[in-house]
Every structure is written in C-alpha cells, then in structure tokens.
Amino acid sequence: TLNIPGIHNVYNALAAITISTDEGVSDEAICQAVKKFAGVGRRFENNGNYPVKDGAGDVLLIDDYGHHPTEVAMTIKAARQSYPDRRLVVIFQPHRFTRTRDCFDDFVDVLSQVDVLMLLDVYSAGEAMIEGADSRSLARTIRTRGQVEPIMLNINDMDQIRQVLGSML
Q: What residues does the Mur ligase C-terminal domain cover (predicted)?
C-alpha cells in the first residue's frame, strides 16, 4: 500500500518498482520500501491538525512546495481525493516573476479551483519585478472568474501566516 496520496505518486512508485525490478531488487525488499515510504519534505507533507477557534473541529495543514501550475494542480487533486468532504484553503506564493508571467493563465485556472485562496507576494529569487506578473495581478484575474475571492497576504513569516489563518477559520 502506498502511504501518500495522488495519482502522480502512484506513477512515481510504479516507475521505482520497475527500475528496482530491472536492477534485481527482491519483491520483498520492494514491498517493504513502498510500505515504509512516507514521501519527501514539502510534498503533500502533513503538518498536523490545528483546532478551529470556535472549537468546532480542526484544520489539517498540508505543506507542498509545488511552484508550477501542473504541480499545484496535482496537489489540489490529491487533496480533493484524500479529503473530499473538507474545504480546501490554499496559501500560495508564486516563485519567480518569469514563471508567473509565462504560466499566468495556467495559474489562474488552477488556483480558481480552491475554496479559499490566500496569495503571498511573488518570491523573486533575485529577479526584477515584471509588470502584470505579480500576485495582485493574479488575484485580479482570478477574481473576475467569480469562483473564489483571493485574499492578499503581505506577510512572509510562517508564524504570522498561521495566526492569520487561525483567525479566519
């Protein structure tokens, strides 16, 4: 049994099993490795449950480093499949202005699929700002779709993000 969600992880596991088999690894060793594998850091990483402020349940915090629309889409799909009855709240920070510009429409499509969207400013990775390739432009375009009302967060500290998130849920 694979312990991590998402069809992309199934494909990755199948590839690893195929290569391991080709390299002569025993079926028993392969099965043990698949059973033990819990994923890698910041890829659909479960960071625990946090109580909701009114005491009516809890919030499951999943961290994923996906920074390309295809990766984000796979994470959203895995979350929807794994937790079909839960509201999907996403905090997203675009990585690089060039990627945001080049994948703008795909980001809009993917990020419009969530229940609540919070956007952080683009992490520039040393790039100069590109007009129209920033988080506010993403938020404006997503807003026109009418599926989700993006919330801009002007903070980059995880403790502050947790506080803002906690006050909203």
A: 54-160
SS3 73: helix
Q: What DSSP element (H or E) covers 168?
A: helix 158-168
Residues constituting the chain:
169
Please give the average per-residue pLDDT across 25-49, as a whole number: 83
Would you call 57 helix, strand, or coil by DSSP?
Answer: coil
The CATH architecture to which 41-168 belongs is Alpha-Beta Complex (3.90)
For residues 44 and 154, give the distance between their C-alpha atoms in angstroms, rounded to a whole number.
24
Tokens found for residue 26: 């025993």
Instruction: Show me where the domains of the chain are located.
Output: 1-39, 41-168
Asked if 50 contacts 58 with a C-beta cutoff of 8 angstroms, the reply is yes
User: For residue 117, what is the DSSP state?
Assistant: E
**pTM of the full structure:** 0.78
Is the distance from CB of 139 to CB of 120 less than 8 angstroms?
no
